[in-house]
Each structure stands twice: as structure tokens, then as C-alpha cells.
Description:
The protein is an alpha+beta fold.
Amino acid sequence: MTHVTLRPEFESLIDPYAPVSQVATGFDFTEGPIWHPIEHFLLFSDMPADVRRRWDAKRGVVEMRRPSNKCNGMTYDADLNLIVCEHATSSLVRERPDGRREILASHVDNQELNSPNDVCVHSSGAIYFSDPWYGRMPVYGVERPRQLGFQGVYRVPPGGGPPRLLVDRYLFDQPNGLCFSPDEALLYVNDTVQALIRVFDVGSDGALSNGRVFASGIRSELEPGVPDGMKCDQRGNVWVTAPGGVWVYARTGELLGKVRVPELVANLAWGGADFRTLYLTATHSVYAIATKVGPRHEPYMRAQTRGAAAGSSPSSATSAGAPSAPLLASGDMQLDPRRCAMIIQDLQNDVITDGGAFADSGAPGHARQQRVVDNVRRLAEVARARGVVIVHVWFVVEPGAPGVTLNAPLFEGLVDSKAMVRGSWGAAPVAGLEPRSGDFVVEKMRMSAWEGTRLETILKATGRDVIINTGAWTNMSVEHTARTGADKGYFMVVPEDCCSTMNADWHNASINFAMQNVAVVTTADAVIRALG
């Protein structure tokens, strides 16, 4: 089955020919998938059958709870307690591993909730959930009168307390799927009847404001499917169930592409040991598809990192279910040094030093303005001390530049300027950024650090999949390396004050636009904090 690419960015998220595998079937209507990050199983609900099941590759499908109160959406909190939306009881419930059950929300203004449907957890511990009335309909719930005259979106504060209505009570017809952006500054909520997604700003007090339509027209007369389950990936793209499968929207609201699935999809969740498998609950079946991107980092995903503490090897951390992405929580980044490599690229005399071949370009001045040498040196010293692999990437040509094709102005300029010649002062690293014992050196003859080099061999051999990408020039070598690294499945981190180019305008254009789609853009100080 071929997926639908509407914009090129879609193919950096998923292979357009990625197979959709049916991992289990024979159910009435599947919903609520959630992956356990330590025990490595998928939990999902079958509402009409009133059963909760789990699936893993070794045991297959196992029944977990019957009756399940016709549960729908599920997630875990930071302590791996299960948070469940129950249709039959109109309740949001916390189930602890020892079997204890706690009702988090069941009433508002002394009236029963309609039927909590989907749920997500904020890093503060607050719980957000939607409350349409599908659970009071036959088949998917228990048919009974409604006590509320509206369908809302609610927040349960950290530590518990009455649910607080966050939106105008008549804004939604049937609010359904909801998810946070990676930095939790935004909450997305879809409406199945209105066939749209709304987005809200999340305040410091957890309140929602500035609601606006993010995407609309999510319907088709030709294919079954409606907005229902929804998740945000680590780059801020929104994946929502829709006609024909799952539609993927960029943070700007542009539709990037469509994941095609054989059955009507109700919900989705990333899982697998590296959180790179997207599981889809689709009517009678559960499907799985490999993706090139992982989920936004949810609070429950941290549970395994507490278990894979100091002393465990990189391989043991991965086998324990370590999430692939750099961990973002409350605006702070957390990086496991054992998974990181730092690239120091093209910081050579000809590129950024007065008297170098490209001095007239303005590059030396912008490098000074960015304090790029000082920042890179400072970051590299901390990174080495933490066990991060350091890789120097140098553009080096032989005298006369044999093998350099003149297919682009950059390469023409390099040959004309007799720049980056092996053994020359111009090809040498700038003072202060010379390789240290244990560092690697990679040579290239193109803009990207990947093209025709041994970079990936080094990364594979040392078990590194998070790349701290520094150097010159921002909008050329650094950006090309970030784009290709993202396509290859690496997590790219770009500390923007460790990069420079010819001028601030070119730097800012790359950092603020192109780089935002392929990397976590941050600063040297933030990376130093993240490395611990």
C-alpha cells in the first residue's frame, strides 16, 4: 500500500512505501492504544466487546480485563499508573499496578460527565481529557440520558481535585482526540462532528486561551474515517485519524501527507523498543508501521530512564526501552551522553578566519559575532568529560582539487580560491579547536558531513544516534548535515550559537525556518545542562 505524499517533508517522517502490518485481528472495534515503555507491550481496548487486551510480539494477544467498563482512551502517568477513560461509568480512572482503582473525575457541577473519551498527561502531572457523549450511545457505551447539556474539555490539577472546564461549553460538538506540542505550549483538540482540529495556548496555570482552527475539512465522501485519535510527534507534526487512515499536518497547519490503512482507524500510539513503530487501532484489527520519527516525549516515557541509570551500557539502556528522541520536559532538554556524538564541522582557517580564502564573504565577522569558536570549544570540553564522541569534519582537497566537481557555485569558488588544500594553513582547524586524544577526524569534499565519508561508520560503531551539530556555515554544511541526518533516522540537535555563516540574516533564515523542521534548535548552555 502506497502512502500519499503531499509535501516533501512527509517522506522525512515515513517511507511512502512502508508496509502496514496487521499484528492482530478479530475484534469488534479497537481503541485506546498505549505502549508500556518497560515491559514492552501494547495495551488497547475493544469497546463493544467490553474487553481490554494487550499484545506483544512473543505472546500475541492476551485478555487483561473483562468487563472493562467499555474503556476508550488510555495513557500512563509519570509513575506508570494507567489512566483510563471509561464510557460505562462516565469516569476518568487511575489504575495502579497493585490493582487499586481511583476515580479522578466523574462529575462537574454535580452532574455526571458524558463519557470521557481521550486523555493526555502534562509534565506537571495535570491530566487533560475530552468528554463527548459517545459512551451514552448503544454499542460503544451504555445507552442512557445525558445530564450535561454540552461536551467539554477538562483539566484535573496535579495531585487531584475537581475537573475544570477549559473551553466554552458550546465550542465543540464532539471533542475527541487531544495532544500536546513537544514543548507543551500548545494543546490540540479535534472535533469528530465538525471535522476539524483546534489549537490552544497553554498558560502557566494550565488554562487554555487563544483557541483557533488549526485544520479543517477532515472528511471524505469516498473513504471512511473521521478525526478521532491524535498524537504529536517529536518535531511538532500532528498525526490524526482521518478518511483512509491517518493525515499528518505540519506545525503550520499544512497537510504533509496521508498514511493509508486497510481499515477505518480510531486511534494511534508510538511504541516499540525505540518508539519508532506506530501502532494503529483500526476497527477489527491492530496494525503497525515503521516511521522515521518518534513521538513527543510523554511524561510516562521517563520511567525507563530512571531504571537505566548510571552504570548501564548504551545497549542495555536501549533494550530497556529508551526513547529515541532527546527528552524534552518543561522546556528543558535531557540528553544521554552515551547516545550522543558532537560534530565540529568546517571550523577551519579558510572558512572563518581573517586571511582565509573566504574572508571577504563576511564569515570571520559573523563567527566573531556568534562567538562560535569559544562556544564550540566550551561545549566540546563538557561533552568529552561526559563521554560524548567528538567528530571533527574537515573539508580537505588535494592540490589542484582533483575530484571536486564544478556543479555548484560553492565548489567553483573553492577551486578558484585554492582553498582547503591538504597541509595548508587554510585547511587546518582554527586555534583552540584542534582534535584531542580520542576524537575522530572525518574528511569530506561536499557540503554534507555524510556524503562519501566514514561518519556513519563511526556512529554505528560507537552506538550514537543523537548528533550535536555545530560548525560553519549554518545555511550550508550545518543545514545539509542536519537534513541528511534526520532523513537517516538520527536525532539532530543544533546549538545555534555554535554555528555561523556569512551574515546574521542568512544564519537566522536557516535557524528559524529550515532547521526547525529537522532538528532540535537550542543553545550551547542548554546542551551543557542537558548532558548533566
